[in-house]
Amino acid sequence: MDSFRFNTTSSIIFEAGAAGRLGRLAGPGLGGRVLLVTDPGLRKLGLCDHALRSLEDEGIAVTVFDAVEADPSLATLNKAVEAGRAASVAGVVGFGGGSSLDVAKLAALLIGSGEVLDEAWGVGNAKGPRLPLVLVPTTAGTGSEVTPVSIITVGAEEKRGASSPIILPDIAVLDAELTLGLPPAITAATGIDAMVHAIEAYASKSANNNPLSQMLARQALRLLGANIEKAVFDGNNVEARGAMLLGSMLAGQAFANSPVAAVHALAYPIGGTFHVPHGLSNALVLPHVLRFNAPEAAHLYAEIAADVFPHLEREQDIQGRCAAFIAELAALAGKLGLPPRLRDVGIGEEHLAKMAADAMKQTRLLVNNPRGLSEADALSIYRAAW
Ligand SMILES: NC(=O)c1ccc[n+]([C@@H]2O[C@H](COP(=O)([O-])OP(=O)(O)OC[C@H]3O[C@@H](n4cnc5c(N)ncnc54)[C@H](O)[C@@H]3O)[C@@H](O)[C@H]2O)c1
Ligand SMILES: [Fe+2]
Q1: Residue of the nearest CA to atom 35 in ligand 1?
Q2: Could you tell me the keywords of this UniProt record (predicted)?
Q3: I want to staple 330 with a disulfide (CB 3.0 to 4.6 A). Which of 194, 256, 287, 345 is the partner?
């Protein structure tokens, strides 16, 4: 068997209502002063009020930074770091979707180590140490609470990543009650993002693709496949919400160690340039990238097809099962109310060539794709998706 290395968050708490006990559960390791990083929408909804109060009840002084936008910018990260330094914080709590968690991760690194961000981009370049870090996801999608990755938008449109086990948090707190009010469109898009993490991790050509990631990806797909429609159409179903949160975390553990590939590489120019939500960007290119990959990966897609859609067990032929899997995924996105084509999200055909050139910059992802992909291939995939 090939050798591999598997890193994950060392302590994971899965408990409905846990955010209201955050001070007890996670306070002791955070020091007396904490920076809580979140977004303005969540602040307005009062979603972090219980967590805040519970930290304060434990005698922890909390500075709230609530200015994280979707696809957070470098300027926002810098402001979060300034706020943390000004308050001399000893720990960081990320509270929100992937955007807030990603800012919290790099804020903990930069405040803790004083290192220069420009030297931390890429894989394995962060030096540390970071401040104690606790992450509380409020979407079931990115799995950022268990990934070593932070994605920041640099300049007008480039999504840049820093990846290092140093920015894995000390504790992830998964509280399904936080996701009950997640609107259907965001539930659908983030849920598809989680599925894509599992699919791409399972089929990843990374030398570190490993049996743990494969097992986690398959269990993630079972949970996500069985619950995504319930979570979208019956948002108050706490069982379904819990299954989605667990599924997205398992998918995060899988791809944190067996990284994602061309679906994400082609999704980034859509999110970076046109501010289409990350999960929706993935959904728009997903069937087209999988169809492109099928000559190399049909057997892998056939292996996981029935995890998402149990009735595909009956389809014995590998090519047939792979094709049905891809068609079912496209149909599922439609059923969940996601727009099917790039033109539906306001992207003009004239932008496709630039998007294909931008996608090729994601070499860290493209190397993991089961089939080699050129700029011309990227353009054909965008054309098919348009
Ligand atoms: N670090 C990683 O491993 C990783 C992986 C995938 C994606 N990402 C990044 O994560 C970001 C996307 O994160 P996301 O999809 O979780 O969305 P997000 O954090 O950008 O949030 C999207 C919207 O959902 C709202 N929202 C979040 N939780 C809510 C709740 N419980 N109730 C009501 N509204 C809620 C937010 O206020 C926001 O308006 C992108 O920047 C993407 O690149 C990171
Ligand atoms: Fe993603």
Answers
A1: 182
A2: NAD, Oxidoreductase
A3: 287
